[in-house]
């Protein structure tokens, strides 16, 4: 049975906007997944990082892929964009995060769902709520309930 998954997308190196748009296209071509919707693009300042502003978005997929297999496919898309991980929160050509996978809570050495800290980041919550105003973060509560706490984080809809 297909599962609805939400993917956080961000980039701040190279042509960040083009990289995010290409991620939408690549997500739409993933075997075992169907791209259902994408949010607007948003510009945000780096948090706990450096470099240029980020372009962020969220995509909604319907997928029959197990969560770990989907995560590995996301890594493949990142690698196609030359993603490097020299240090934690390093600037990036493309970052794809599995935010939500149905109503599952997952905690393995390589995957945590809901994505840690997503409820603390306007660059995740704002585009997620655009696509799914009633979204629930399993184990945490309604996504909308976290929005006021991140209202001071600068985010501009493009």
Shape: globular
- Helix proportion: 10-25%
The top level CATH class name: Alpha Beta
Global mean pLDDT? 92
Strand content: 25-35%
Q: Determine the CATH topology.
A: Alpha-Beta Plaits
Number of helices: 3
How far apart lie the N and C ends?
35 Å
Question: C-alpha Rg, in Å?
Answer: 14 Å
> How would you classify the helix and strand content by structural class?
alpha+beta
* Total domains: 1
SSE ordering: EHEEEHEEEHEEE
How does the major sheet shape up?
6 strands, antiparallel
Q: Superfamily at the CATH H level?
A: 7,8-Dihydro-6-hydroxymethylpterin-pyrophosphokinase HPPK
What is the CATH-assigned architecture? Answer: 2-Layer Sandwich
How many runs of DSSP E, i.e. beta strands?
A: 10
**Unreliable residue runs:** none
Question: What features would you describe in this structure?
Answer:
The protein has one domain: 7,8-Dihydro-6-hydroxymethylpterin-pyrophosphokinase HPPK (Alpha-Beta Plaits, 2-Layer Sandwich), CATH 3.30.70. It is 23% helix and 29% strand. The protein contains 3 helices and 10 strands. Strands 1, 2, 3, 4, 5 and 10 form a 6-stranded antiparallel beta sheet that branches. Strands 6-7 form a two-stranded antiparallel sheet. It is globular. The model has no long low-confidence stretch (mean pLDDT 92).
């Amino acid at each position: 049975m297909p599962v609805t998954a939400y993917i956080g997308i961000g980039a701040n190196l190279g042509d960040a906007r083009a990289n995010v748009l290409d991620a939408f296209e690549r997500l739409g071509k993933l075997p075992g997944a169907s791209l259902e919707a994408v949010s607007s693009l948003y510009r945000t300042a780096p948090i706990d990082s450096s470099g240029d502003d980020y372009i962020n978005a969220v995509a909604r997929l319907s997928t029959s892929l197990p969560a770990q297999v989907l995560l590995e496919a996301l890594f493949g898309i990142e690698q196609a964009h030359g993603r490097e991980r020299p240090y934690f929160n390093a600037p990036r050509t493309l970052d794809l995060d599995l935010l939500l996978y149905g109503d599952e809570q997952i905690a393995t050495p390589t995957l945590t769902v809901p994505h840690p800290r997503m409820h603390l980041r306007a660059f995740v919550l704002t585009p997620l709520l655009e696509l799914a105003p009633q979204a629930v973060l399993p184990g945490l509560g309604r996504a909308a309930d976290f929005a006021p706490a991140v209202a001071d984080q600068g985010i501009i809809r493009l």
